[in-house]
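Tutorial sheet, problem 5. The two components below are modelled jointly, 509 residues in total.
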Amino acid sequence: MELILETLGLTETAALLSLSSPGWGANLLRGLANSLQIALGAFGMGLVIGLFGAYGKLYGGPILRDLLAIYTTVIRAVPELVLILILYYVGTDLINKLAQFMGYGRVEISGVVAGIWVLGIVQGAYATEILRGAIQAVPPGQIEAARAYGMPALLTLRRVTIPALMAFATPGLANLWLIATKDTALLAVVGFNELTLETKQAASSTRSYFTFFLAAGGLYLMVTLCSGVVFARIEKWARRGQPSLRQGGL
Amino acid sequence: MTGLKSLMQPHRLVLMALFAAFVLWCALSMRWDWLPKYAPLALEGLWTTLWILAVTTVLGFLLAVPLGLAQAIGPWYLSAPARIFCTVIRGTPLLLQIWLLYYGLGSLFPQFPWIRSSELWPYLRQAWPYAVLALTLSYAGYEGEVMRGAFSGVAKGQLESAKSFGMPRFTMFRRIWLPQAIRNVLPTLGGETILQLKATPLVATITVVEIYAVSSRVRADTFIVYEPLLLLALVYMVIAALIGLAFKRFENMGPTLRR
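Model answer (structure tokens):
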């Protein structure tokens, strides 16, 4: 092993990236864990917001529909970086006001929670649009049939609408998950220790920028490629029983 | 006329009144006294944002056409690198790419004396070339994927008829293939250009002074938090709306399928 590193001239790189103390590998992995945690939380929160938002947009009253239209339009037109700052300040202000009102002192908000809250609201806007399109793509006869059997609304959602819309929503949601993992990097700007910021700290204290940024790029790429495989399987599962379009099944 | 009529529904009037009240409250009770002092800087920043956006989308698109073509019909030794490039660009955060180029190349270049003595050195010492390079590559990566689909989506009969007329290959590409491919993906390109606009504030992290950097500076100088951010969000919304309108016009310029 060491011989291979020696011949490739990578001994220094391996030492820099090693997991034990002089190396920075452990810091990078901790950053990756933080990033994934936030991405998962934000994606989940976005899905919940998106499901409610899609239903509101399709079946809600005129006021709710207009409000949701404003929400999705504004979120999708303003850069994530600006939204992160605004939502971060608004969130901390609101929580501190609430805490003062209830008689507590200043509350420290953990970076993970703030990140999930901020990115979740951003993801919610995109998820709303994706799920709205997917619900519209479900043949209305299926939902009507469920209603005709007297199925309650929630049961219809769980047993009919969600399984049927999965096939249409999966590609969009896969894209959204990738956006979530990459958007966690923006939290570096507000000083949260996720992968990109850990990388920058490691790089600037050792002055070997290429090593660390390329290593972090490799980590992000690994996450992306693995998620691609997972989502391909989910889509295959969601499309089971549907005729394949490739073989001219139509 | 219908647009006006749909705006005149009672609940929309109430919403608009509420919104107007909110704007009025913002204008009256928030602090805007910093605005005249920073207005020239803000205009400069706005100009920087706009030219970076324009330059990187045009250059990125020019790079995306060969990338898409290589992936659609190229031999494997062209399509494989193009696919890898697109995957890497789309699989890593843009912020990381920007920092890799700026800090990485920026620390590498001074080690070579011939670069330091070259005429490009005064430019390479500034931040904007790295910002333009990173944003161009990023746009090319995303658009290369879009153009791959666009090139393979053009109807085969069109290309065959061009060939049967004896059209040279380059003319066929220029007159038949490229225009149809672009027209098919114009809506996507519009969306991607807005995404590119939303990526521009990232270059503020490598000391390019664009509109986002100006707002950060106002926040740091005056400790006013919300006002610069809200104004900034408004500016981005207006630019995004203008891009959307421009692409709508492009789409209407070509003949459309009547359905």
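Marking note: Chain B has one domain: 37-247. Full credit if you identified this.
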